[in-house]
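Form P-L/3: holo structure prediction, ligand magnesium ion.
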Amino acid sequence: MQPRSPAPSQTTAPYIHCEDLFKIYKTDELEVVALRGLDLRVARGEMMAIVGASGSGKSTLLNILAGLDTPSAGRVTVGERDLLTTTEDDLVRYRRTEVGFVWQQTGRNLIPYLTAEQNVEVPMILEGRSRQDAQARAAALLASVGLSEQRRRKPSEMSGGEQQRTAIAVALANDPPLLLADEPTGELDSVTADEVFAVLRALNRETGVTVVVVTHDRQIVQRVDRVVAMRDGRTSAEIVRHVQFARGPGEVIDEFAVVDRSGRLQIPREMLEALDIGPRARLELSGDHVEVRPEAKPDDAARDTWGRR
Ligand code: ADP
Ligand code: MG
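OUTPUT (holo model):
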């Protein structure tokens, strides 16, 4: 048999690479495991989304990728940088120039008493750029998010969607290669949310900035290259949209379960419940697929001991 050449995405090192990543929050009485062995790869220039129930660890992951929080164990690299072992000084540099961040709360992204263009200029001036340079770039960035007309307005004089588009311009002020957004449309209606996603998509295509966005938006799969679902601190499923030409141009949406390095995969809860699968399942290789069945139960009494039915 001919050796199969690896898929293109596997030949180049991923831009973001998380492997067996753990984050444990310790408080006085208890430990919360927010990330438990998370695996994730993101290619340079990709625009991808992370979805998942509240508490599944999405913000924890984004804060680690932003250099705002440190992981407890495992591996996380962005570009050449190892975020687990990097120094505090280097992390400051990383946060300033390598990554832009957009928060859900519009108020957290912008300085209220500055205009849109002044807000965009601030990060550049802090980096030592001349006022003239900063002004020119702020004007160009605000144009690219469709806010040339609103550039002299303060946040309180703009809609929620306009504030978030300004926040995207602020996040990209120093031209970082990575843009992270934690539920940037969480406080917006669906039409306005669409405009924000369209701006992110356009910037991603035009500048090649890698975009990772956490969202609850159900339409997100139409807007990004790939959606990764998180459950209980791990990535559990992946939805990929691709164009197929076999039967005329069209789009196919494929959903996959994530299989980690140890061969573990999460069976969606609905499937477990539909088949009444308890703590053990039977696996059988059947030609080109694997069959997963509930453990055979001798009688209904056995179910009772599992606390089911
Ligand atoms: P999501 O963004 O998916 O809603 P989070 O990453 O915010 O989830 O939280 C994941 C888990 O970690 C939750 O159980 C949450 O309560 C816990 N957690 C998050 N931040 C902290 C913190 N600073 N201290 C203690 N527990 C935290
Ligand atoms: Mg969150």
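COMMENT: The CA atoms of residues 237 and 258 lie 5 Å apart.
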